[in-house]
Structure formats: C-alpha cells, structure tokens
Amino acid sequence: MNQRKYALSLLEDAGTLATKPVSTPFDPIVKLQIHKGHPLQDPSSYRRLVGRLLYLTISRPDICYVVQQLSLFMAHPLDSHYKATLRVRHYLKGSPAQGLFFSTTSFMKFSAFSDSDWACCLDSRKSITGFCIFMGPTLISWKTKNQNTVSRSSTAEYRALGSLVCELQWLQFLLVDLHISRTDPNSVYCDNKSAIYLAHNPVFHERNKHIEIDCHIVREKIQSKLVHLLPVSSSSQLADAFTKPLPSSTIQTFIHKLGLCDLHHPT
After folding, report:
1. Domain limits at 228?
2. b/e for 234-265, b at 16 or more Cβ within 10 A?
3. Is residue 25 a part of any domain in this protein?
4. Distance between CA atoms of 94 and 266, rounded to whole angstroms?
5. What local confidence, expressed as pLDDT, does residue 17 receive?
6. 3-state secondary structure of 147
7. Taking a C-beta distance cutoff of 8 angstroms, is the pair 198, 192 a contact?
C-alpha cells in the first residue's frame, strides 16, 4: 500500500519535483525550537504543507517522527521549521512509492515495540512516546506523540508502555468483535530495564509515586496475560524510528525491519 501519486502531487505543487533526494527525512544535528528563527510571511503555506504530510503518514511511518515534530509549530512557524519541511520533501523525492507491505502469510500474533526519548523537547522538556505493533511480519499500528506531562527518569519509558498496552487492548477488543479468539499473550519489547522491573514489581516505593495511576495498566495486563514484557537491545529497538531522528547509516535497516518497500523505481 503506497501513496505514490499523492506524494508526487505534493512535490509538484511545492515546486520540489526536480530536487536532489536525500537519504534521511530529518537532520539529526538540527534541533527545532519554538523561538529559534524568524517568522514566516505566509504561515498558511507551512500549515497546508504539514497537513498534507500528515495524510501521507498513513502509509509512510518512516516520516512519522519528523511530521510530528513539525506539527508542534503550526501556530507560529519559523523559517527554520520551513527548512525542515524542505528536507522531508527531498527525502520523499528519493522514494515516492515507498509504502507498507501486507503479507498473505501473516499469522494472528501481535508483537510490539515501545520506546521513549527522554526530555527531548527543548522548549517544554517533555518526552516523546513511540511504539509500533506487528501482526505477524506486518506493521499494522504505530504512534509518535509528545507526552502530556514532564517525566522524570524511567517514567517516560513506563508511560510509553502504558500507551502501547492500551492500543493492544483495543486490538484485542477488535478481534473479539470479529469473532477471532486468541489466548496467547502479546509480546512487548522494551529496552529499558527499569521500566520492565517496575511493570513486574508489585511494590512501589516513594520514588515511584510520581508515576500516574493510569500507567499501572501495564502491570495489570501482564498479570491478566494480555502482554508478555520482554527486554530488547537498543540496537534492535524498532520503535527508535518513532522517537528520534536516525542517521543515514541505520535508517535503511530500520525501514526494512518495519516492512516498508518500494515497488517503483525512484523518479
């Protein structure tokens, strides 16, 4: 499933159809901030472009992180934010037909990856939640979002786990409505040992009381056998693509692991 025609239309309307492609949608060195730059003379053009990129994320999870970051500045976009949109368009030029591959051999087994980038927002110091869910080898759900409150230490990872478990619970209810029964727990992978320990340990000390009550749903769903929480190395954490900009040396590896493919030659 791809949006090649829509992507090419976006590039043509923006006048960047003949641009030179780049290998990454976001420069890891660049740090976008709300007051770092000069206001745009026509902010509506920025909002319109980001809105079109949001629609493109339906089949392009590889640009999900950068589009989420650009969406933070819709109210008062600056020239530095607009330059970041140029890089996204240059990236799309290299693979406009890239999209999701749905395998006919997928089995009814969910596996999920959860991650967070602690205090990554330079303006608010809020962490970002990122997760992705696979049904067999097929990517079916993903998310990138700033957390509502400022997190301390491993609380950010635990909140990300809470969001992922709620999504898995919704998918479980959906299967029940479709009269599909499953008893095996869903595999959830996290690269933070402290978050895994908190999810399994029923004793919470004073230092953990700042974790919101709704995040404790993780421990509840582990006990009810909905999820099985497993450790994973940071190098194999697929949710990294939804929480931080990846260098060109690793982004293609993550794209392949997410199950994205391009059936057309680059334009």
Report:
1. 110-232
2. eeebbbbbbbbbbeeeebeebbebbbbebeee
3. yes
4. 6
5. 85
6. coil
7. no
DSSP secondary structure letter of residue 72 = T
- Residue 136 above 80 pLDDT? yes
**Coil, strand or helix at 113:** strand
Which helix or strand (DSSP H or E) is residue 77 part of?
none
Q: What is the DSSP letter of 120?
A: -
- Alpha helices per DSSP H over the chain: 4-14, 43-56, 64-71, 79-94, 155-177, 193-200, 217-223, 248-257
Across the chain, how many H-helices and E-strands are there? 8, 7
- pLDDT of 15 above 90: no
pLDDT at 203: 64
For residues 173 and 86, membership in a common domain is answered with no
Res. 216 pLDDT band, cuts 50 70 90: confident
Within a domain: residue 161? yes
Of residues 123 and 153, which shows the higher confidence score? 123
Closest CA to 143 of 153, 129, 159, 125: 129
Please tell me whether residues 137 and 86 are part of one structural domain.
no
In a domain, 240, yes or no: no
Tally of domains in the chain: 2
Domain end residue (candidates: 42, 70, 99): 99
